[in-house]
Amino acid sequence: MNKKRRYISLLLLIALTTVDQLKAQSLKKVIDKAFEHAEQQSLLMAKKYENQPGRLPKSFEGGTDTSSDSRWWCSGFFPGSLWYLYENNKNQEVLNYAKIYTDRVEREKYTTDNHDVGFMLYCSFGNGLRLTGEERYKEVLLTGAKSLATRFDPRVGLIRSWDHNTTVWQYPVIIDNLMNLELMLWAATYSKNENFRKIAISHADNTMIHHFRPDFSSYHVVSYDKKTGLPHKKQTHQGAADNSAWSRGQSWGLYGYTYLYRETKDKRYLEQAKNIANFLINHPQMPKDFIPYWDYDAPQIPNTTRDASAATVMASALIELSDFVDADLKKRFMKVVDTQIRTLASDEYTAKLCDNGDFILKHSTGAFPFKSEVDAPLTYADYYYLEALSRLKKRL
């Protein structure tokens, strides 16, 4: 049987279902089917770029594949997705591809001109190290942490995010930057160099003070005065307005303070994560299926796009956060996750085999104000979806 016919056969075998149909299935069955489909789709993706050295998938817009080299901030997500798929099924073909695509990101260990080294390396090499113990991966991660540390200015107490737009921002820090601190905390433990931990804690604390509003929503960009170390601008770059709640940014905050509590056991971080979760779950503009619009304050709601990536990051964070709260709150969080996962696993959000540029999920939003990756698949949506599935499966 040729490859095309084999894929058509698989398409018939792996039938996607509606949300209502999934509600009648056990969560374990939903997760197992989701992983099975994701593995087939991701292998198609891996084979597509196999003979394109250095390329990594980004999105699929207007019927066209978009990819990048390792320099793009999301280069580590597809390798990370392969690692989660390997962890689930121990498929040696997936393992081989996970190693190949992880190696494509290695040069980013020397990157010092942006803050995304944690995204790039911890999702790829970090998962690879966790699952294989490969000694070489430790050097990559530690070198990457040293590179990231060069962007920390003790006068400001945060890791600088971007170097561009200097006429507007003196020292810009975006909420996304919280996600890169996990690499720093790993490096502190591995190297016994507490400076990494001090940098991470300083960044987390100053973000908690200056990025968040009284309702526990967050700004996207806060720029700091380099002399005083205090904010001089609080803005958005990808949200609807400076004072709006850009949905993926809110999920970054939830995820960040959840793992910060896991790593430090500082109850301030736990309370911050719980308060962010409460803001999101109870937001009047949160849809019933808990797949957020691209911004909770988007003026076009409900006639605007969703962001599946914001939902996957939120779901993964809530699963972990549920381990740290009382029984009633755990039940509440997991009910939200159950709804999110069943919705994402349905044919409303999961692409058919061979469709969607071989990405798993549909309907994410990259940067709505720039008309970039709007209602499109995103590599990090797939990554955090697989992470959420993996975390859920371990709890069943």
Account of the protein in words:
This protein has 396 residues and is mainly alpha-helical. The protein is built from 14 helices and nine strands. Strand 1 and strand 2 form a beta hairpin. The model is unreliable at 11-16 (pLDDT under 50).
Distance between the termini: 37 Å
| Helix count from the secondary structure assignment | 14
Model regions low in confidence, pLDDT < 50 over at least 5 residues: 11-16
Q: What can be said about the biggest beta sheet?
A: 3 strands, antiparallel
Summarize model confidence as the mean pLDDT. Answer: 95
Q: Helix and strand string, N-terminal first?
A: HHHEEHHHHEEEHHEEHHHHEEH
- Give the overall shape: globular
Give the total of beta strands: 9
As laid out across the biggest beta sheet, the strand order is 5-6-7
> What gyration radius follows from the Cα positions, in whole Å?
20 Å
What structural class should be given to the helix and strand makeup?
mainly alpha
Q: Classify the beta-strand content into a percent band.
A: 5-15%
Helix content: 40-55%
